[in-house]
UniProtKB/TrEMBL annotation, chains A, B:
One of its GO terms (biological process) is pyridoxal 5'-phosphate salvage. NCBIfam families: pyridox_kin. Keywords: ATP-binding, Kinase, Nucleotide-binding, Transferase. InterPro entries: PM/HMP-P_kinase-1, PyrdxlKinase, Ribokinase-like. It comes from the Eukaryota. This is pyridoxal kinase. It holds the Pfam family Phos_pyr_kin. GO terms for cellular component: cytosol. SUPFAM superfamilies: Ribokinase-like. Belongs to the pyridoxine kinase family. Gene3D superfamilies: 3.40.1190.20.
Length: 378, 378
């Protein structure tokens, strides 16, 4: 038997997000990514969609593409109401199944459901604060929109603004970071300011902005060269100052769906791994795992944060999986179009399907990616 | 990057079964097991239960324990109706997402829903027969009851009797094999007769009876020795005669839940693998993959069937995962009971939780198990 040891210590994760019948997005992708890293996952599915894809060319979308529910331009399915989310949670509690080390919350339909999910996070956080600080860590992906466009109801925005103070790590894209902080991000200074506001005014300990596209951050406007994007992260100091890093990576000129969900799930597992590794090498200089929100001491540099280590590995996995998906997608579409005169709708649907991340066939890329793109200071 | 190659060729599987929020049963276990073997899985969830466990001591339950919905003695959740199953399927078709190589159908609530799922299987089967025989394979787990007790409505039994003629492989337990064949299984002769009826009268090509407990089949009645059980399988010949084999294995004296779902999912992947391997080594003597129901030529011995190879590997994985689950369960319960005076209900709930298969932490056992228990002729 050739069992690789799991990366993380026993980790029980509650994942709340959409479920789809077909396609690797929402909880479907998150649950598999978490399990493949050795986490024990309980999933509350906020939506059972027939499919939930995406179809915008990923020129500026290689890390985060979580929203376009109409990727397949059609869907059938049932929403799970706020009350049902609460019922499922009460059921878990009654059965003593509420003993979670981490929580990942993703796409939630509507403000009432966001609040219902928020109540779960708050309750778990409160319990851990009292009993054992650091024993619970909440990763919140505030799915609201992208590229200047909301794809949730407007009242979801204030619902998230009320909630993020309870989260340990948030994963907004550039547009969502603007919505939450109230700061329009146009250059390095405004980007830093947005992060500062999220740390200072909301007290969010860890932030990763998952898709930053600013000319000064490494994006090359020339069509001749490979375009790049950046992920920007920060773990606050004890007086809530940012410790900023960025990781810049090339953009695939390919369609993808579910990348945001994959990014979020891997961040959960890699954050746990990084904090555990930090403790192992700290030579007894205090444990992060036992500290509220796993906050690194103030003398830890931006490039040495567990958050930085985690983000590097996650991006390495993303890069390998996207690379392979892009290759098989090109082959698949060529095959489908062979000898066939497909209409636009059919072509669109086939492309949406082909854009789904090839996770199950790339387990090695999830578990043992080669880190090529390193974090830099900003 | 240390990527192990996937075991199966690109395989797209439609999995229809229950979903649970917590616990490794139903589609939750099936989807992960299939994905970990490299399959691309689309899942239709027939039930979103809060939990769905099991709590009968597994003295005669080490392979199959799929039914007891009241394992946690309480649940909250929503059933997905027959109409919704049909809607989800129509949605998949409209989006060109109905291109499946295999289907796994498990627990389905009620006769109408069984029919709805059956219509999906029939349609896929029909399409493949016309276009490309062998390009679709349906594994049907006729979940109805166990140990002489039905845990579905009575009209589910005739619904399955009407349906199994369309399946390629069915996975009844001993009781379900009796219900379907109308033959009471009390000894070797009646067991063989039940399999004969299923092949001859229903035309089911492949059968695995997942938990056979007969004294003559290796079960030891003495409490001093390790008790055993058997899995009994057969692939019919072209004139519908059985080719029987059995695999006998020791029984863990431990609680488990979800073993039936794990068994079924692994059978899907391992059957695909075994048939692919058969073709690789057949030296051009015809391909099984291109034959309706992947039926081996008549001169293939019971012990050389792809079904036999598949069942051996599946049982090897089961044995390793159950062994590890049993060990961690014992440790977990000892920990929980330490310093605490737990009431019966709490104890029961904790045991149910601890009985969940430890899949995510035993990926190696799923992918590369050591085959210890070999098939024998009957």
């Amino acid at each position: 038997m050739s069992a690789e040891p799991p990366f993380v210590p026993e980790t029980s994760v509650l994942a709340v997000a959409s479920h789809v019948v077909s396609g690797n997005v929402g909880n479907k992708i998150a649950v598999f990514a978490l399990q493949s890293m050795g986490c024990d996952v309980s999933a509350i599915n906020t939506v059972q969609f027939m499919s939930y894809g995406l179809s915008i060319i990923c020129s500026n979308a290689s890390v985060k593409r979580k929203g376009n529910h109409t990727g397949y331009k059609q869907w059938k399915g049932t929403r799970v109401s706020a009350q049902e989310i609460t019922d499922l949670w009460e059921g878990l509690k009654q059965s003593y199944l509420d003993d979670f080390d981490m929580m990942l919350s993703g796409y939630v339909p509507g403000a009432a459901a966001v609040e219902a999910v928020g109540n779960i996070g708050k309750e778990l956080k409160h319990k851990s604060k009292d009993q054992k600080p650091g024993s619970f860590f909440w990763v919140l992906d505030p799915v609201m929109g992208d590229n200047g466009r909301l794809y949730v109801a407007e009242d979801v925005v204030p619902a998230y603004k009320n909630l993020i103070q309870y989260a340990d790590l948030i994963l907004p894209n550039q547009f969502e970071a603007e919505l939450l902080s109230g700061v329009k991000i146009t250059d390095f200074a405004s980007l830093e300011n947005a992060v500062r506001v999220l740390h200072r005014d909301f007290g969010v300990p860890h932030i990763v902005i998952t898709s930053v596209s600013l000319p000064t951050l490494g994006s090359s406007p020339s069509p001749q060269t490979t375009r790049t994007m950046s992920v920007v992260g920060s773990t606050m100091t004890s007086d809530r100052h940012p410790r900023l890093f960025k990781i810049t990576f090339p953009v695939f000129e390919c369609y993808f769906s579910g990348t945001g969900d994959m990014f979020a799930a891997l961040m959960v597992a890699r954050m746990r791994e990084a904090v555990t590794n930090y403790d192992k090498h700290s030579n007894g200089n205090g444990s992060l795992v036992g500290k509220l929100s796993w906050l690194s001491p103030d003398d830890v540099d931006a490039l040495d944060l567990p958050l930085t280590r985690a983000a590097e590995k996650v991006l390495a996995s993303m890069h390998e999986v996207l690379d392979r998906t892009c290759a098989s997608l090109t082959a698949e579409m060529a095959e489908k179009q062979k000898d066939k005169d497909l209409d636009e709708k059919t072509l669109h649907l086939l492309k949406s399907r082909a854009s789904e991340l090839k996770l199950a066939r790339n387990l090695g890329s999830l578990r043992n990616p080669k880190v090529e793109y390193r974090a830099e200071k900003m």
